[in-house]
Amino acid sequence: MKLYCLSGHPTLPCNVLKFKSTTIMLDCGLDMTSTLNFLPLPLVQSPRLSNLPGWSLKDGNAFLDKELKECSGHVFVDSVPEFCLPETELIDLSTVDVILISNYHCMMALPYITEHTGFTGTVYATEPTVQIGRLLMEELVNFIERVPKAQSASLWKNKDIQRLLPSPLKDAVEVSTWRRCYTMQEVNSALSKIQLVGYSQKIELFGAVQVTPLSSGYALGSSNWIIQSHYEKVSYVSGSSLLTTHPQPMDQASLKNSDVLILTGLTQIPTANPDGMVGEFCSNLALTVRNGGNVLVPCYPSGVIYDLLECLYQYIDSAGLSNIPFYFISPVANSSLEFSQIFAEWLCHNKQTKVYLPEPPFPHAELIQTNKLKHYPSLHGDFSSDFRQPCVVFTGHPSLRFGDVVHFMELWGKSSLNTVIFTEPDFSYLEALAPYQPLAMKCIYCPIDTRLNFIQVSKLLKEVQPLHVVCPEQYTQPPPAQSHRMDLMIDCQPPPMSYRRAEVLALPFKRRYEKIEIMPELADALVPMEIKPGISLATVSAVLHTKDNKHVLQPPPRPAQPSGGKKRKRASEDIPDCKVLKPLLSGSIPVEQFVQTLEKHGFSDIKVEDTAKGHIVLLQEAETLIQIEEDSTHIICDNDEMLRVRLRDLVLKFLQKF
Amino acid sequence: MDPECSQLLPALCAVLADPRQPMADDTCLEKLLDWFKTITEAGSSLLLLQENPCLVELLCHVLKPQDLSSRVLSFSLRLTGVFAAQEDCFQYLQQGELLPRLFGEAGPLGGAAWTAPTVRSGWIQGLRSLAQHPSALHFLADCGAVDTIFSLQGDSSLFVASAAGQLLVHILSLSMRGPAEGPPGLQADDWPACAQKIVGHIEESLRSTAAPQITQALNVLTTTFGHCHDPWTQVLWVQLHPLVAALLEKDPVPAAHSLVDLLLSVARSPGLSSSSCGLWETLAQTLSHLSPTQAGLLALGILKLQDCPQALRAQAFAVLLQPLACVLKATAQGPGPSGLLDSTSADSVTADILLPSKAACVGLLCRTLAHLELLLPLPQRPCPWPQAPLLGAAVTLLQLCGGSGSPASDEGRQLCTLLLGCVRVQRAALDFLGTLSQETGPPELVTQVFAVLLEYLRSPDSSPTVLKKAFQATFRWLLSSPRTPGCSDLDSHALLFLRELLPVLQKRLCSPCWEVRDSGLEFLTQMTRRWGGQAGFRHALLASEVPRLTEQLLRDPESYVRASAVTAMGQLSSQGLCVPPASPEHPGGQQKSLLGELLHILSTDSEGFPRRAVMQVFTQWLRDSHADVVGDTEQFVAGVLQVAGQDLDWEVRAQGLELALVFLEQTLGPPRSHCPYAVTPPVAAPASPLTQALQPLCRVRLFEFAFRALFDCDRPVAQKSCDLLLLLRAKMASSSSLQEPRSSPDVASVEAALQRWRAGDQAQPLGDLEPEVVLAVLRSMDLEGLRGALAESSDHVEKSPQSLLQDMLATVGILGENEADCY
Known about the structure:
The structure holds two protein chains of two kinds.
Chain A: E1 2-5, E2 15-19, E3 22-26, H1 47-50, E4 68-71, E5 74-77, E6 98-100, H2 110-116, E7 122-126, H3 127-145, H4 159-162, H5 184-191, E8 194-197, E9 203-205, E10 209-215, E11 223-228, E12 233-238, E13 260-264, H6 274-290, E14 295-298, H7 304-318, E15 326-329, H8 333-342, H9 349-355, H10 364-369, E16 373-376, H11 382-386, E17 392-395, H12 405-412, E18 419-422, H13 429-433, E19 442-445, H14 454-464, E20 468-472, E21 497-499, E22 503-506, E23 516-518, H15 520-525, E24 529-532, E25 535-537, E26 543-547, E27 550-554, H16 566-574, E28 585-586, H17 591-600, E29 606-610, E30 614-619, E31 624-629, E32 633-636, H18 641-653, E33 656-657
Parallel strand pairs in A: 3-6, 6-7, 7-8, 12-13, 13-20, 14-17, 14-18, 15-16, 15-17, 18-19, 20-21, 23-27
Antiparallel strand pairs in A: 1-2, 1-22, 2-3, 4-5, 9-10, 10-11, 11-12, 24-25, 26-27, 28-33, 29-30, 30-31, 31-32
Chain B: H1 3-17, H2 27-42, H3 45-51, H4 53-61, H5 70-84, H6 87-95, H7 98-103, H8 117-130, H9 134-142, H10 145-152, H11 158-177, H12 193-207, H13 211-227, H14 231-247, H15 256-268, H16 279-289, H17 292-304, H18 310-331, H19 347-354, H20 358-375, H21 387-402, H22 410-419, H23 423-436, H24 443-458, H25 464-480, H26 492-509, H27 514-531, H28 535-543, H29 546-552, H30 559-574, H31 594-604, H32 608-624, H33 627-630, H34 633-645, H35 650-668, H36 690-699, H37 702-710, H38 715-734, H39 745-758, H40 771-780, H41 783-791, H42 801-822
């Protein structure tokens, strides 16, 4: 059993598991942090961005000044943003049988895999994962395609040139594999390969293993997966949460008794408690708006935004913010808000019960009804006529490199009355802000990551008790910035096995058993013999028939009737030779009684020696040795077959035959 | 006993004795018993029984085999004890063989009723009341009660077990008090048999291997030494001391908590001279034998003792400091003494207790901090007080809990993992840190204190309770921050800190959690009250958004927050720190004055707390002659009294009277001091006659308000009003310009109106009153009588024994009717 690790990002995993005869890809996350090296794509021409000076080498060589621009001491690639794909060379991806998706953030690389690697298998995911994943992809494609960029920079990726660049471009990994965003056509084609599944549904893969999605509590439709055969169980835990937010709670019980638990997608900000961060978010929002400033919240169109809107729904009246407009701008804003209301069965219990009242499960419906929350596909069109300040704007993309957020950063960045509040934990806010420097607006960092933290993990592992834990290497040591925080790492016994990008891991357990079915008529023919109380044995003679990873013992064919025909003859030759077998022996030989029996049969001068494995009975007169061990008995005598047979018969007296 | 009660008693006794008529409410049995206790304390029980034979009949009746409720049985046992406390009555009951039948083997003791804990408890309490005289001791000995009490010490009901222990102490002390010929000698061999039996039982229990028995014995001894201080207690201690000391040789020490209690009780007992009995040695030994978790309480007790050898005190203090020393050692950046304890020998023990489990670690640290906090303000606290290391320890603990500590050692890291985010330790450490502000510390440590406080105030993870404590500790440290002599302003460091603090406070005032907004406002009020007049503070505060945010919180949805905002705004306004209400909330640009805003709250707020807060602010403003009030005081007072008089919340009305009182004093001059030595400020006596001085009071309709309050359905309001009017009448009497009382049609109509008010019809207003009319009405009113009536508790009529008996009978009567209905 092997694990191929194709991604180095612990929360955007992409691993391939070879288990029995199947090849299963676990998630295909897309590392978008690569986009931070690029200049933002403004919706409207930005004189500031277009006038940034080109970058030149120390010696004044300016051959890269078209590709690289400098802003406040940082160098950015002036090109269409590109993404860092999972490793494609480590394993032939066309051999992947299935892809299991755990949540909508972890499927963003799907089109790259399904459309460009010869993949012919099936993808499994829950319905909300697919629908919201589609929204995220649609938004991404839209953001990038609506601002076409003529220029595509590739010179800087040359290894020899990259070495000369300043950090972080110099240290960027695998730049040659970075790819532009896929197209909507590719998205549609990739999504068409998905088969929908429900929680706890059992899916057979080629009869060899069974996979089952379980609720993971992190997002709408998010799942952990169990991959099991009859005697082995691998759990794949990716992006789980124990907090009570909107999704169905995490199913922990089903993870018990795993041989291996692959643990990914823990919180990216283990020191920030989501509750405290929501409080910070509300306080800073109110403080800004009360001072007459605007608040910008860069966010994804689904996920935490639902919880934020719910908190604000409760908070705005108490904070006297009822008159402040809230805008949600995304090409998929409308679909996201509406989808969230129809996935009742995937929601937490509280929200499910609302549906029966009937009420919309999320209170943002009421915010929309009362005109407190308005949503627009983009800032062009209706929005510009409705726009009123001070206000709060939720919009993407959290990387601040594309999407409507770029416009608001340019618009509001100059005033210290305004605030940008970062709630998505995926991007370093300092790096995200770098191309906007100098910036007068206030920046607040309230990352809200509801995924498991290390305390919760240690409780979970105690509860679930897997034999082995496998996790990204980042989880096996404290974060570099807080090396004394021994609590910020996975602590379990035995210590977890860790992996890193482009590594192949042999998982630490051997398969020892395989289930075999026995046909009823064959079972009827067995004659069990009790050898110990409660344990019976029977010998079986049968034909082992294996098909589709299922093994069946069938009755042996009857011995062929002797016949003269040639064809018959050949047929009988094919039949396995069913000779009568020697009986099997069981039991143990009590040495003292054995010696007494020997004496009774006329042997004298018997010596017994104890050895590490058993005993040696020495018949000195006959120059014969009898070695008695746990699982074998040897009679060693010199060419005296008569004596050997006599002794053998005496030994056999003590054993049972069947 | 009054005749009415005597008449009711037989019927009641019959009801009690009737098993078919159960008492629904056993509190009336308690009240009945209390009543009998008062009667017997005042007079002869014997006479009572002879005059009311029904009582003895009741006692006899409960002995008959029947299905009587355990409550009534228990009541009867206790009642018997109350009667038998007097020796003649005891003899009387003894003659009827009633006592042995009730308390002896033949009584409930052997029957099925004994399974009810209330009966066992009644039996013990009966004996406790009865055991007041030598005859009782004989009785106890004869009926073998003491053995039963021994066994009841281990009763399954904790109440019974504890009462049994106390009864033993009582019997022991009674028997040692001795007969009339004098107390028994100091030789234990000469002690009465009963005492010897009890002491023997204690000795046996102390030798036992069973922890519960040892605990019982120790508890009995603790009570004994706590209550009896006669010389015999010293003999008892000398005799039992070796047995107690022997307990320390066991590992683990059994019943450690009870042992600590006993030793402290002995040490505190004035009857024992501690030095002669080897007590100090035992205490020292105990300190070293007990685990740190158990020894803390003993150490604190020792340090609180007035006279105690220095070495023992030092040992006790070391025990108390050990856990913190351990924390300091684990987190020390380099080797070297932490400064808290020199010896490190015992550290390993504490480390063993601290590190393995979170619960033990947190418990020990919280107890240690609480103990030290108790010790700090005491005059006998250890000297020199290790202020600097303790400050260091508190700061370190807070850093560990907050995740900002960076311990170098493995133990430190382990400790960090255990304490991270632990709210209990955070609260205890913040409390302790606040208490430490009474003393100062080295400047670099004080800087650290402010840094850690700011960290807590800033951290989004601080829970509301932790935050509140952080605010409190911050205020205390700001109070104690070093300042130039003669100047009460904040020093430059504190001002720098304040500049960092105000943005945090600003954010906290916008918190979604109302507790946080509330404690932020309380903190602001405290700071403004203290430094509102100081230039540095004013400058920093006015440069921030805090005053404007506070004003917005007057409209907070949470009533507690509104109340705190009212108080804070009142304080800010008193100090001239208010900014005009902001425009976003009032887009029309209509700017209300704060006075108007508060009046609006007073008349419209649906919750009581903000309205009470407004009244307090107004009273304070009137007292301080606030600028908004001084302009037209009469209009202000009239307006406030009118609104407050209609308020549904009695505290608002009572506060209205407080305001009226301030106005009255300001108008008529303060009340004359009765103390001959008091310095009376030279107040110009009102030159004008009293009637003229009363004019303003009449104009603001103060009297209508006060008279209405006089008949208020809430007693405190009526009392306050009564006091106010009495004060006014005293002024009238002292005033030289006393005018002849005169009766006029006006007076008659006012008096008639007041009569109607008293009867509950307060619809009709009094209209404009002339001072003369007021004076006449005041003279004619029986205010003293009213005050007396109000001073009685509201249920004084219903509390009479007669009413109790009637109630009890009525309840049963109703039951009886129901029964009749059934047929």
